[in-house]
Write a structure and sequence with these properties.
Layout lengths: L2 H9 L2 H18 L8 E5 L8 H14 L4 E5 L5 H5 L11 H7 L8 E2 L6 E4 L8 H6 L7 H7 L7 E5 L6 H9 L2 E7 L8 H14 L5 E8 L6 H13 L13 H5 L7 H4 L4 H19 L28
Parallel strand pairs: 1-5, 1-6, 2-4, 2-5, 6-7
Antiparallel strand pairs: 3-4
Bound molecules: adenosine-5'-triphosphate (ATP) and magnesium ion (MG).
Length: about 325
């Protein structure tokens, strides 16, 4: 056997491929991404549960930070999943987003740096936040408390990513008032678009009454399984309806992505060479480049632009009227 053949065979083992990918990630991580002119505040929302909001928030945030940007994740879900995934302590006594929203405490008091990822910060959520939906009702400026807190935060930031709970209550409204952009993760599964119309109508309402700059800038297809026809169908349908907003990169279904949170890590540090890590890095690159190029849909604010798609395939669409 020739030496070159041996090398070719060795290079083709799974470990070698992972190592190569890891090197590629490390190389890319040093490259840097365009820094937005002003802080981009992105609301990661979809009231449908388990579609990949938290996974997307933490992995995009880590990807952006690993490219040298300063990123704050705000965990706005009482489940505290984003805090867990970033290895941030969030037991009941930890100062958290609850203190910010309900007690009016400065955001800077509760933000913690994420170990292992320079430039990444997290405002944790504790179980206290479960009561906030109700407590907020009687407070002054109940819809804009998060917006005020972010505006008063003095540390320089390139991105703020807000991980919303799977509901459209006052917590999500606070996020929509605070952000400029909405990022909607859509799971490439049966009933993927269920409830999307309702979310889009909420975005329209908040834009009309509380936050004129708000717009859906980004849609990310998650848990894409290339082996199934259904995933391809859902992806095609979403791309047809949201041609401008859908990122080219889809996130594949990946065991590594789902394992990472149990180690208090993002997939970027847990397994940097995995397909999941690479896909989030690529999605972050697309997001940053589109933002820098001004192609994030801000100009398209005509009402009804994001009308709920009509049921084409009964399998995945829901008529939410
Ligand atoms: N690309 C992926 N491949 C495999 N598993 C994934 C992927 N993305 C997310 N998951 C898993 O799917 C589950 C739901 O993901 P995640 O918690 O991010 O969704 P969510 O929308 O934040 O949920 P919730 O509505 O409860 O807040 C988690 O167990 C997560 O680990
Ligand atoms: Mg979540």
């Amino acid at each position: 056997m020739q030496d070159s053949e041996i090398v070719a065979q060795v290079d083709d083992t799974p470990i070698a491929r992972a190592a190569q990918a890891a090197v590629q990630v490390a190389g890319r991580a040093g490259e840097g991404l365009p820094r937005p002119a002003t802080t981009r505040v992105m609301v990661v929302a979809n009231q449908k549960g388990g579609v990949g909001k938290t996974t997307t928030t933490v992995n995009l945030a880590a990807s952006l930070a690993m490219h040298g940007l300063r990123v704050l994740v705000i965990d706005l879900d009482p489940q505290g999943n984003a805090s867990t995934a970033l290895g941030i302590d969030h037991h009941a006594e930890v100062p958290s987003i609850y203190d910010v929203l309900v007690e009016g405490r400065p955001l800077a008091d509760v933000v913690q740096p994420v170990v292992d990822v320079e430039g990444l910060f997290c405002c944790p959520a504790t179980i206290d936040l479960a009561g906030a939906e109700i407590e907020l009702v009687s407070l002054v400026a109940r819809e804009s408390r998060l917006q005020r807190a972010i505006a008063a935060y003095e540390q320089p930031l390139d991105y703020v990513l807000i991980d919303c709970p799977p509901s459209l209550g006052l917590l999500t409204v606070n996020a929509l008032v605070a952000g400029q952009e909405v990022l909607i993760p859509i799971q490439c599964e049966y009933y993927a678009l269920e409830g999307l119309g309702q979310l889009l109508r909420n975005v329209e309402l908040v834009r009309a009454h509380l936050n004129p700059v708000l717009h859906v800038s980004t849609i990310l297809l998650t848990m894409y399984d290339a082996r199934t026809r259904l995933a391809a169908q859902v992806a095609e349908e979403v791309r047809t309806h949201f041609e401008q907003e859908v990122l080219r990169t889809a996130i594949p279904r990946s065991v590594r992505i789902s394992e990472a949170p149990s180690y208090g890590q993002t997939v970027l540090t847990y397994d940097p060479g995995s397909s999941g890590a690479l896909s989030y890095l690529e999605a972050a690159r697309e997001l940053a480049v589109r933002g820098a190029a001004g192609t994030v849909g801000q100009q398209r604010t005509g009402s009804g632009r994001h009308a709920a798609p009509t049921a084409e395939h009964g399998s995945t669409m829901e008529d939410n009227r």
